[in-house]
Design a protein that fits this description.
The protein is α+β, with helices and mostly antiparallel strands. 18% of the residues lie in helices and 31% in strands.
């Protein structure tokens, strides 16, 4: 059902500082003005950072968002009034989210499906100022700032129409664009990982609500259980659902408090060169074997990346 993962997101408090951190510590380039949205009085500031300027090669972007005050005089379609409350509700979480955003080609069917199932959702309907629907699952029309994990599989899912991001699915069957990136450059976001308290339940709820494609369950190196939500676009990031093994980092938090957005995995065209780049940026990192895939990886110290775990791996496509 999902065409591609639109973004791996960070919900932050200091928007300019967070954008600078992603650039200085990890190597994201300067965003173009059109990659920004929101602004004063709209409830949010957001920028979509790219590993590759061409979405055809890297459909999933890094979305950095901060909540801000809402001007009640602005038209509702131009604001996200639930963002400040959604941020406050995640005060105790070490990593925060505004939502897991997927693009879908058949929005009408997605809407009909959640309505038939009576699933908790909010339809941000198309209008003269916003000509396409957005569908949120995990919050409701009456309580837009109250996220209750369940029908969303624990991911706070937002669906947008694929037509709003032209050129991505049209290029899905073509080889990735020829790259002129420097050695060690980021090529695409390959995964966003979520820690969930009950993997079987998350899978069952996701398939009931969305009929999405999910891989078989596997076991990671530390004994955690994992499965991946896969999208139609071959270069989209997957969403790895990870049920932490007892004693694994944050296992107790997730068991007690619920799902938690976690690692963002980024492919690079030369892993050794990326290690040199991180050293030049004075970004401390550890050489590891990725816990889910087992491949060699670089893991920057989360304390230097806003508390969000990132992992760099070698590009394979």
């Amino acid at each position: 059902m999902f065409d591609f993962l639109v973004s791996a997101d960070l919900l932050v408090d200091d928007f300019p500082s967070a954008v600078h951190t992603m650039q200085a510590r990890l190597g994201f380039g300067d965003p173009k003005p059109q990659w920004y949205a929101g602004g004063e009085g709209r409830g949010f500031d957001v920028v979509f950072l790219r590993t590759d300027p061409r979405l055809q090669g890297s459909p999933t972007r890094l979305e950095v968002m901060a909540a801000n005050a809402v001007d009640p005089d602005l038209p509702a379609p131009q604001t996200l009034p639930h963002m400040p409350g959604l941020r406050r509700a995640q005060d105790a979480a070490p990593v925060r989210t505004h939502g897991t955003v997927f693009a879908v080609s058949d929005m009408d069917e997605a809407i009909a499906r959640v309505r038939r199932g009576g699933f908790r959702h909010w339809l941000d309907a198309a209008n003269e100022l916003m000509p396409h629907h957005r569908l949120w699952v995990g919050i409701s029309e009456e309580e837009k700032d109250v996220w209750i994990p369940g029908d969303d599989g624990g991911l706070l899912i937002e669906l947008v129409e694929t037509a709003t991001i032209p050129g991505v699915m049209e290029s899905a069957d073509a080889p990735p664009p020829e790259s002129e990136l420097r050695q060690g450059a980021m090529t695409r976001i390959t995964a966003r990982r979520w820690l969930v308290p009950d993997l079987d339940q998350s899978i069952a709820r996701l398939q009931a609500t969305f009929d999405c494609s999910i891989s078989p369950i596997a076991q990671t190196a530390d004994g955690s259980r994992t499965a991946a939500i896969r999208c139609a676009h071959p270069r989209s990031a997957v969403v790895d659902l990870v049920q932490p093994a007892p004693g694994a980092p944050h296992a107790e938090f997730v068991a007690a408090r619920g799902p938690l957005p976690w690692t963002i995995v980024i492919a690079v065209n030369d892993l050794a060169a990326k290690a040199h780049d991180l050293e030049a940026r004075l970004t401390p990192f550890t050489r590891v074997d990725d816990n889910v895939t087992g491949v060699p990886a670089l893991a920057p110290e989360p304390a230097t990346t806003l508390g969000v775990p990132f992992t760099f791996v070698q590009e394979t496509i």
